[in-house]
């Protein structure tokens, strides 16, 4: 694998999940694969899980790790070409990506959507800027439109907990006080399209995700009917896609409750706002898989790094 920018880059998802579970059973099985190789993790936005799990994954493979909070500590980057750089942006992506490429063997990037300009966000200028100008592999640690490491961890978690060949999995929108990006939901949808499952997306009117991503998926605007007989309920907020980046309303009736969850497993990528997105009783119940999802982030990242290292 050259780059990991979307869940599709993995190839066969089921094979990937099985390989990740093998790594989970024996995390140090390939402890020399990354010896004398360095990964540089560049964060343009905050993180807890992605930062620590990717670092741990690299360490399991014997890699050295460099971490930089680029958003706070790096020079502000220019992405346009031919501009006179006489304002706040001190460095062009062209030089920055080539320079970083000399210090490491893999670059991993986190750069969220601005939620101000759909076209610009969908161009993925940070991630694609590094892909274009770096001469080493690039891993997406959550970009404007995708969070494929999270989706792979979610696939691993579903595999570990499913009790039937074809479970019912529901992605349910949840209320949130702030405008959040679509990346987690997009990648979860893309991952579910590769699964043998009954998959339903439920969200209020006005919150439909990018139709190119949800093409072929069942979208139900009545949460109660969508949740019927669910085996897994993945709860996530996202801002409007059609009214790009807007919070149209914070309908608290969409909050996940123990009653609505029924017997299903509860999933969320974290971080999550208690009693806003779901009630405490959901998160604190045995049905919650959120801590396991976070643990599986390590093995998702380890699989991705292993696949990249294997083609060096
Ligand atoms: N789920 C996830 O990506 O968590 P962080 O934002 O803390 O990395």
How would you describe the overall organization of this protein?
The chain is of the alpha/beta class. It is built from 13 helices and 11 strands. The chain has helices spanning 13-25, 49-60, 70-73, 93-103, 118-123, 125-133, 148-161, 183-192, 211-214, 223-227, 258-261, 280-283, 290-310, and strands at residues 38-43, 64-68, 77-78, 91-92, 106-110, 138-140, 168-173, 198-202, 218-220, 232-236, 265-267. The strands form 3 sheets. Strands 9-8-7-10-11 form a 5-stranded parallel β-sheet. The N and C termini lie close together (9 Å). The site of phosphoric acid mono(formamide)ester has 9 residues, from helix 2.
Note poorly predicted spans.
none
Helix content: 25-40%
Q: Helix/strand-derived class?
A: alpha/beta
* Count of individual helical segments: 13
Q: Tell me, briefly, the overall form.
A: globular
What is the topology?
Blueprint: H1 13-25, E1 38-43, H2 49-60, E2 64-68, H3 70-73, E3 77-78, E4 91-92, H4 93-103, E5 106-110, H5 118-123, H6 125-133, E6 138-140, H7 148-161, E7 168-173, H8 183-192, E8 198-202, H9 211-214, E9 218-220, H10 223-227, E10 232-236, H11 258-261, E11 265-267, H12 280-283, H13 290-310
Parallel strand pairs: 1-2, 1-5, 3-4, 5-6, 7-8, 7-10, 8-9, 10-11
Helix pairs in contact: 1-7, 1-13, 2-13, 4-6, 7-8, 7-13
This protein binds phosphoric acid mono(formamide)ester (CP).
Phosphoric acid mono(formamide)ester (CP) binds at residues 47-50, 142, 150, 269-271.
